[in-house]
Specification:
heterotrimer, A mainly alpha (335), B alpha/beta (694), C alpha+beta (365), A: 335 residues, mainly alpha, B: 694 residues, eight-stranded mixed β-sheet, 21 helices, 24 strands, 23% strand
């Protein structure tokens, strides 16, 4: 088991290294950098910067070095000093900017995942067992709609409805008075009262997808011989359904859980922009538009890292659930 | 109703619903199952055997309904109990146990076998968990599972096929049911494992005084297990009586034909039943068997459905035994073939195919970056020769490497070591390492027929195109259009298919017809050698006989050589001139068919032969059984590969690999062969084909 | 297999099965209609997408009337009433009312804004619109510059629907090439490609897309932006298709009839073309169809954030940018209508894809 975990961790480390490279070069490789943008802005105000001034600016921001060099400096500082660089646009260390936002993104993603499970698993089971019933048709139809509406559109519609009919703005994760308040119980309560809209927006497509998957998986499993065996043993129908086919159908679902989590983390970016959440999404968008190198790279890296953690989690869960994988892990131990 | 009857079916009819269409799948099925006896239901695929079993337990799929009839058991009519009746649930598993074909899929892979056995025990006996566990260990012990207490915590994927079936049996026997339904329990198993499981079932039945409803397509298994036999055809009981009566003096023309079409030893052409079993939607009017029956009388058999009559202690559903009996002359054996018993004439040409020390090793990569390489030694050091006009059979159990060997010979897989020589009349050449272009010319004269008639034909091509493909792709270029058409149509006629059908797609053909198309494709470029990989094992007995006859006819008319790969010794005994026995990737014995069957010289061959079941013969005497399982090809033992399971093994066997030695034309790889007196197949009671007029 | 199907070919069986899938048929018809619209946008749109009318800023959708009461009696004449706007001084908002005196007669094949069909053929005939080329009609309202939302939505259909198609096309080419290489060579190559795909799939795609799209300079010409965006979407999109292609390839490679095709003397290229492709084509078509909606949603999302396609290009995402702030959708909820177009398109493609997927294996139950 320890060996299995160790292997996973090694794999994860390699993945993180690859992620850091991608995150950095995605921002750096396209032509133009932050200084170019400054120069452009200055031009708009009618100021012309001298070439040597531009040089100085570049040197200040560390942009005069080669890209590869910049990357290694960045990574070195992360490893040895926990320093993720400096935000050009905001004149603040990146770590100060992203701390809380990352936490909120993680919280939102995890809660959305739980929401999807709690809603989709029972509905999926119901739909499969009562195939072609009225309920099945209703859920199937809702599922199709859920899949077809882009996240941001759903967010907009919800915003509009609450504004139009309830006369209030539901954006954000906090009421105005709590945005910059220190963490208190009241603030947590306020957060929770705001969380449901983003959770619904983020979770709808995923819920629809999971319902469809569980329904399809379970329909496959319902006619397997082992179900017949259980029935021939005289077991009660509900009990045997839950113990055998449902249990079997959850396995492929768990192995696809990381895909789901990646999609949630990914979709969060857009939803957060529309709903004005105090998470990483809006910050990332701004950083990208401003070519704020270290801020953008760090954010992309952390979001990818979050997704990788999700993968690790689903691997571990699968190991707990699937005896075949558990036995494999145990046998690797012995070798 | 007889007083000693445990289960009685009366007039049971079951139908399937598909959209708006209904088709009758069981039609007035009725028979009694006496206490402590075994009744075998036998029939070809689609005759309703398994459906009968499921109807008894009321575990039918939702598209099947019981229309009429009674299932009397324990004083209740199971056919009328409501779906959720507690009596029904207590009978399922508690009073009637069920085991069936694929023990791998019939057990859940997510729970330990102990969990699944204990669940059955607790469901019906209301005992504590600890007691259920003890009971599960007892049960596993009773079914002969080694280390039962440890095995309780195993998952299905950690067990061999035979062990899984033992678990199924233990689970079914847990609540001590008075009736066990065994639905093809050994069909997925190898013969040697089958022999052990059948022993076990019989033993348990005798010890517990249990009744058994045994469902199988295999008449050999029926002979081994049954007290009474129920023969089914297209959802109807056509004959029912004591085993001795039904198997040795069958009455119904279907039973007769079925028995006659079994492969017998060393015979020429076999009797066959024309055509195939129709689908349920195409059920003929009158007698269901009439269109295929050699005795059918038009105006009667195709109009009026016969009733089940009692004749000499046997129930028969046939007009020939009723009021119209004078119209029939059943002694007329039109079902019997023109017996051209050629014997095994040994007039073959020279060598056409030669293997010298051929080995095939697969590499399996494991680990994150494929850094760990595992070697799977599928075929090891195989040498053999195939002569012109000869049939050499390659027999062995699943996983022994026979399919790999076949594919290595034709070059679908490349040999890791050794040489393959191919060519007639001394003009042979080494084809082991030919470049792809030259292989294509080899493939014109060495062809292959595959096992599964469904996956071996491209579903997107017509039968014509499939057969024409090797002609169009021949290295000499495609023949002119008119030649092509006449050639392909000629091939259709050669394999007994109507050329009119050549425009159809594979899905429109039955299994036997598809296999004929496969044979026609193999014959198209006028080959010299055909490698046939289990060509009849996916087919029903009656169709199997037709295809085997086709192989015989083609050999005698075209002088073909066959390398015939099979696990079925009955088939091999009827067709092959020589037999090579394979075990764990090696050939352990190679000799003429009669030599091997009568005087095997390798202990594995002896075990294999003693497990063979011959219909119409009592099998109580043969008590030679193999323990354990074949070795893992990725982790073969040193020394003789069979040593671990061999009753005669000594120290030398575990250390030295035995050489293949030629003992007067009888090749054998065993250290002790001279010292052993091994038993072969003995046909002292009634030889091969037990049909009445043979 | 029942006898009445005996003469049918495999493709006919697939077709039969598809025709029994009602939602699939519905999806097919809708998809066809949408692509027809995309093909004839210039002709179908009543106005050019860029033309505006300051006095019609945020004009609401107009209702069409059928019967016109004229001096010579009642006659069938589709028409709308002109709009009359006043400013509500309490709220500062403009209020529109129908002006019953100003009748705008509508007709088929009317002359209107001139355009070049597919950028090539000059024309000025429109399928339906005001008879007087000087008049304007807003069936779905107008936006903040007084542009016709319906015409813009129709124009956007071409961009959004083709970006899905082109994006999936590029993904498919990449997927087939890479998946095919992976399946063909096997071994280490296969392993490396599989690891790469797993890695790419474990990354959150939207931040990466945003990262890449943000790098497109705002000054880039529209055509090139369009190309960049499809390329960006395909960079991640190919992985799923490559997996499917490889999976199918691997499964087919071991089928007996493929082995048999080799033994029949077929060369690798012909085996792939004649024996393998026809057997997985229907699956691939289904998978591709199901991949298009994802591309459409991705493009829409990027453009919505302002880093995908940019005006003057009109795509559904670009149009929805108009609906980005609460204030504008509160005043003009009809700005959501391009969103409805997205939902309808995505739904139709999903229905179609589902139907195709079920039909792809006509022998299954």
């Amino acid at each position: 088991m320890a060996r299995f975990l160790a292997r996973r961790l090694v794999l994860m480390l390699l993945t993180v290294i690859a992620i850091s490279v991608i995150s950095f070069f995605i921002i750096v490789l396209p032509p133009g950098d932050f200084v170019d943008r400054l120069v452009q802005e200055a031009n708009q105000y009618g100021e012309n910067l001298e070439p040597h001034e531009i040089e100085d600016l570049r040197r200040n921001y560390g942009l005069d070095r080669s890209t590869v060099e910049q990357y290694f400096v960045w990574v070195r500082n992360i490893i040895f000093r926990g320093d993720f660089g400096y935000s050009f646009g905001r004149d603040l260390p990146v770590s100060e900017l992203i701390g809380q936002r990352l936490g909120l993104t993680t919280l939102l993603s995890v809660i959305t995942l739980l929401f999807i499970w709690i809603v989709a698993i029972p509905v999926g089971i119901y739909s499969a067992v009562r195939k072609y019933s009225l309920g099945d048709y209703v859920f199937t139809f809702l599922g199709f709609i859920g899949l077809a509406i882009p996240n941001f559109l759903l967010a907009l519609v919800l915003l509009y409805i609450s504004f139009r009919y309830f006369g209030q703005s539901v954006g954000g994760l906090f009421s105005p008075e709590y945005v910059n308040a220190p963490w208190t119980l009241e603030r947590v309560a306020d957060l929770l009262s705001h969380l449901w809209i983003p959770v619904i927006v983020l979770g709808t497509a995923g819920t629809a997808e999971v319902i469809r998957k569980i329904r399809a998986n379970l329909l496959d499993e319902l006619h397997r011989p082992y179900v017949l065996t259980a029935r021939a043993k005289g077991l009660g129908e509900t009990y045997l359904l839950l113990k055998y086919p449902v249990r079997h159908s959850l396995n492929p679902f768990v192995s696809e859980l990381n895909d789901l989590f990646v999609k949630i983390v990914s979709g969060e970016t857009i939803v957060a922009v529309v709903l004005g959440l105090q998470t990483t999404g809006p910050l990332l968008l701004e950083a990208l538009k401003e070519e704020d190198l270290y801020l953008a790279s760090t954010l992309i890296m952390f979001l990818s890292f979050l997704a990788v953690l999700g993968t690790l989690f689903s691997d571990l869960l699968l190991m707990l659930l699937d005896p075949k994988i558990r036995r494999q892990a145990a046998s690797q131990e012995m070798m | 109703m007889r007083t000693d009857v445990l289960l009685s079916l009366q007039g049971l009819s079951v139908s399937f619903r598909d959209g708006r269409r209904r088709s009758m799948a069981l039609r007035d099925v009725g028979f009694d199952l006496p206490h402590a006896k075994t009744v075998a239901i036998v029939g070809e695929s689609g005759c309703g055997k398994s459906l009968t079993a499921r109807s008894i337990l009321r575990i039918l799929d939702s598209n099947a309904t019981i229309d009429r009839g009674q299932i009397l058991f324990d004083g209740a009519n199971l056919a009328e109990l409501p779906e959720k009746d507690p009596v029904l649930r207590s009978i399922r598993g508690g009073r009637i146990g069920l085991i069936y074909q694929e023990p791998l899929t019939a057990l859940s892979s997510f729970y330990t076998v102990g969990n699944q056995i204990q669940e059955a025990v607790r469901q019906h006996q209301g005992v504590t968990k600890a007691r259920a566990r003890e009971r599960a260990i007892e049960l596993l012990h009773a079914v002969g599972m080694p280390n039962p207490a440890q095995r309780l915590d195993s998952y299905t994927f950690e067990l061999s096929g035979g062990q899984r079936q033992r678990v199924m049996i233990a689970m079914a026997l847990g609540p001590n049911p008075p009736l066990l339904i065994a639905d093809e329990p050994t069909t997925a198993l190898d013969v040697t494992t089958q022999a052990v499981i059948l022993d076990l079932l019989q033993d348990l039945q005798q010890r517990q005084g249990m009744s058994m409803l045994f469902i199988t397509h295999d008449l050999g298994v029926v002979s081994r297990m049954a007290d009474e036999v129920v023969v089914m055809y297209l959802g109807e009981v056509v004959e029912h009586g004591a085993k001795a009566d039904v198997l040795t003096t069958p009455k119904h023309p279907y039973t007769r034909a079925l028995m006659a079409s079994l492969p017998g030893r060393g015979q020429g052409r076999q009797a066959t039943i024309p055509g195939t079993v129709p689908t349920l939607e195409e059920r003929p009017s009158g007698c269901s068997f009439a269109p295929r029956c050699a005795f059918s009388r038009s105006g009667l058999c195709d109009v009026e459905r016969p009733v089940l009559l009692r004749s000499d202690g046997v129930d028969v559903r046939c007009h020939a035994f009723g009021d119209a009996a004078p119209m029939f002359d059943l002694s007329l054996q039109s079902a019997k073939p023109e017996t051209v018993t050629k014997g095994r004439s040994r007039q073959f040409g020279g060598r056409i195919l030669g293997l010298h020390g051929v080995s095939k090793t697969f590499e399996k990569r494991e680990g994150l970056f494929g850094q760990r390489v595992q070697e799977i030694r599928a075929v090891q050091d195989v040498s053999l020769e195939l002569l012109q006009g000869e049939t050499l059979a390659l027999v062995g159990e699943s996983g022994c490497g026979k399919t790999t060997l076949g594919q290595t010979i034709v070059g679908l897989d490349r040999a890791t070591r050794g040489r393959v020589m191919f060519g007639a009349d001394g003009r042979d050449r080494d084809i082991t390492d030919l470049p792809a272009a030259e292989w294509r010319s080899v493939w014109q004269s060495m062809r292959m027929v595959f096992q599964d008639p469904f996956s071996s034909l491209n579903p997107r091509m017509t039968a014509f195109d499939i057969v024409a493909e090797p002609l169009l792709q021949s290295p000499g270029g495609p023949p002119p259009e008119t030649d092509l058409v006449s050639k392909v149509h000629g091939l259709f006629r050669l394999v007994g298919l109507d050329p009119e059908l050549s425009g159809r797609y594979p899905h429109a053909f039955s299994g036997g017809q598809r296999q004929r198309i496969g044979v026609a494709r193999a014959l198209a470029p006028d080959p010299m050698v055909i490698i046939a990989d289990e060509p009849v094992s996916a087919l029903d007995v009656s169709v199997q006989a037709q295809v085997l006859n086709l192989f015989r006819d083609l050999q005698s008319s075209l002088g073909l050589s066959y390398l015939f790969i099979s696990h079925d010794l009955n088939v091999v005994a009827s067709l092959a001139h020589r037999i090579a026995v394979m075990y764990a990737g090696r050939i352990v014995e190679l000799a003429e068919t009669d030599e091997i069957l009568d005087r095997p010289r390798h202990p594995y061959s002896e075990a294999l032969l003693s497990a063979v079941l011959i219909p119409g013969r009592a099998h109580k005497d043969s008590r030679l059984r193999l323990r354990g399982d074949p070795p893992d090809p990725s982790n073969l033992p040193g020394g003789c590969v069979f040593a671990g399971r061999c009753a005669y093994a000594t120290e030398v066997c575990t250390q030295e690999i035995p050489e293949m030695r030629n003992l007067g034309g009888h090749w054998v790889a065993c250290h002790h062969t001279e010292a052993l007196a091994l038993r072969g197949l003995r046909y002292e009671t009634c030889a091969g084909n037990p049909a009445p007029n043979s | 297999m029942t006898a009445y199907a005996a003469h049918l070919s495999h493709s006919q069986l697939v077709m039969r099965r598809f025709l029994r899938h009602r939602l699939g048929i519905f999806g097919a018809v809708m998809t066809l209609l949408i692509y027809l619209v995309a093909a004839f946008v210039e002709f179908l749109a009543p106005h050019a997408p860029g033309t505006y009318q300051a006095r019609d800023v945020y004009a609401p959708p107009q209702t069409m009337h059928w019967i016109l009461e004229g001096p010579d009696g009642r006659r069938f004449q589709p028409h709308v009433y002109g709009l009359h706007s006043t400013t509500d001084y309490n709220t500062g908002q403009r209020v529109f009312e129908d002006d019953p005196d100003r009748v705008i007669e509508l007709g088929f094949f009317v002359r209107g804004d001139s355009y070049r069909f597919w950028g090539l053929v000059p024309a000025e005939i429109h399928f339906f619109g005001p008879k007087d080329p000087g008049e304007r009609v807003y069936f779905l309202g107008a936006d903040r510059l007084g542009r016709d939302v319906l015409s813009r939505t129709i124009y956007a259909t071409r961009v959004s629907m083709t970006i899905g198609l082109v994006g999936v096309g590029i993904s498919l080419i990449l997927g087939i090439a890479i998946g095919g290489v992976s399946g063909y060579f096997g071994g280490i190559v296969d392993l490396a490609i599989q690891r790469l795909i797993e890695f790419l799939q474990s990354l959150p795609s939207i931040p990466l897309w945003i990262g890449l799209a943000a790098a497109i300079p705002p000054t880039t010409p529209p055509i090139r932006t369009y190309f960049f965006i499809t390329a960006i979407l395909s960079i991640i999109g190919w992985t799923g298709l490559a997996r499917v292609v490889r999976g199918r390839f691997m499964a087919l490679k071991d089928e007996d009839f493929i082995k048999s095709a080799r033994l029949d003397g077929n060369r690798p290229v012909r085996i792939i073309r004649r024996h393998m492709v026809p057997n997985f084509l229907s699956h691939i078509i289904a998978v591709v169809t199901l991949a298009i909606p994802g591309m459409i949603i991705a493009e829409t999302s990027l453009s919505f954030l302002g880093i995908g396609l940019r005006p003057p290009v009109v795509s559904w995402g670009v149009l929805l940018q108009e609906a980005q702030n609460l204030r504008s959708i509160a005043t003009a909820p009809w700005l959501f209508l391009p969103g409805l177009a997205v939902v309808v398109a995505v739904l139709s493609l999903n229905f179609l894809g589902d139907g195709l997927r079920d039909a792809a294996d006509p022998y299954a139950n």
